[in-house]
Predict the 3D structure of the following.
Amino acid sequence: MLKIVKGWFKQSTTTSIKIFKIMIPVTILVKILQETGLIVYIGNALAPLMSVMGLPGEMGLVWASAMMGNIYAGIIAFFSIGIELTVAQITVLSTIILIAHTLPVELAITHKAGMKAGTAFVFRFIFGFIAGVLLYYFYHVFDLYQHIPYGIEKMGNIYEKASWCSWALGELKNYAIVFCYITGLIIIIDILKRVGVIDKINRWFYPVLRLLGIGKEVIPITVIGMTLGLAYGGGLIINEVQQTTLERRNVLYALMLMSLSHSVIEDSLLMIAIGARISGVLVFRFIFTLVMIYIFVKISKNWSEKRMEKWFYSVTNSNN
């Protein structure tokens, strides 16, 4: 048992250090933007796009931080800006972040696995935006989650009034909280693996993926990517592409599916921890992904290989 606990702590420490290397510069940048008033100009530039999703323009900086950094960078930017959001808005913001985040790393993975990086970027950004718009109108029409969570509201008010010293102490507290979140998530995921819950989830996904028209040879890899992360699934696909012959369309569809919904357990729990609702970050995102991939598979089924080669297949996978 002691060995397991040590493994949890070592993994959480290593992961946290990598995350803090991104979080700290983002935090300082956001503080400088606030102090100089530049955040207002960024918000104004992004306001038209974000407002369609029912979000303040400043949240564009949060999404950009997540896309260029990772989910944690987006979260720290969100808390640093300190604008009050309703639970519905937090859920919409969390959902688009889950669809499009950590793009420099994940686009490199998908490109090496067989999908053009540029296409993958456009795919995730546009579909993230569409998902945000649809979820916003759903919550708005049915008047769901239109209240401000107490914890988020309180943190925002404290931040706005804080001196540089108080701000620094507050950020150290936030880093400690993030470390606790990471440790908790690592423990939960490991326990779920050990008791076989992850395997059961994987078996549940199999018939769903078959209905989408995704070939059975990539289903196990796709399920791993969806449940545990794009790095896992993408890495396995890269390995399979290099060692075996996989049908390129199946690889493409699998990558698209994983791009919209990956790490559905860990990442969803993370966003729920900051105030998002499971109805958006998990249920809606999963249904949205299945519908969008199903539509794309049906539309592209009769497209020529030449068209697919031009717009979708990456050069690294052209030999299959």
